Amino acid sequence: MELLEHKAKLKEKYPIKPDFRARMEDLIGKEDADRFFEIAYYGSPSSIRVNTLKISVDDLKKRLEDYGWKLEQPIKKHLEIMIIRSRLKPGELGKTKEHLLGYYYVQDISSMLPLLTLLPTKGDMFLDLCSSPGSKTTQAAAMMENSGVIVANELSLGRISILNSNLERCGVSNTIVTKNDGVRFCKRLRKKTKFVFNKILVDAPCSGEGTLRKSLKTFNMWNEKTIKNLSKIQKRLAVEALRCLEVGGEMVYSTCTLGPEENEAVVDFLIKNFDIEVLDVKIEGIKLRDGIVSWRGEDYDKSLIKAKRLYPQDNDTDGFFLCKMRKLSDKCLLEDKK
Description:
By secondary structure, the protein is of the alpha/beta class. It is about 40% helix and about 20% strand. α7 (about 110-120) packs across α8 (about 135-145) and α12 runs parallel beside α13.
């Protein structure tokens, strides 16, 4: 009864705007939209990623099980990913000595998907264009075994402090942190050095529709004007990043939102102006839905069915979008503006 009353109060404090509901119903249907909004008022389960730079999966698993924690490893090929099925005390997950020593990173499974898709390896030259707080940067470093080079870019000085703190805690030593606007950074790097990367992640700033379970304030802040404005920023970031990718290299574009304007429309713009191919993505143990090829009267490239969408009601996670692409040549139809 208390839980129902609490949820009723949350719904009253954070109501669903009619335009938001209408969009979600257009996107996934009324029944599915109802499930999407219902789960939004329940917190998502805690999940962590073992930092294999400092400890093995088996060793950390034993340590946490000694605390009485019940752990689930949902992805067979990535046993470093664990869901905590025990009910922990407030703050307990972040106060263990294992967390303070950097043995694990608290991270939603949705946030781990871009790197499980891009799969950076030892010796790669990897760009994380919008990197703070460092969840994906530290994940990449572990996958690369602290070899190769990671350039982690971030604009906000305050967020860079958080990024540096997480890199230090996790024992990351192959990363160069830069402070710049993502678009200007790529332009300067390309024009002054001609340097290119073979792996790039553009985890773009977005409207955050997929993170409602963590921040119900998103309900109150949501509006379509913001979505349209963000789409313009996202296209500029993705364009300049793609220009810094070597021929044959791979890039993942991702967001923690669900509106096609911020997702498929951005990649469709890249397809129309660059020589790229969209690559299929499959992650065993995670239900991923296909990308959207038509939205409110606008048709997108058919290959965008290979892009992937993660809905909270499918996996008990946050919501997410990702698309993996390969650059086939340096052909570009856009004017190279300063």
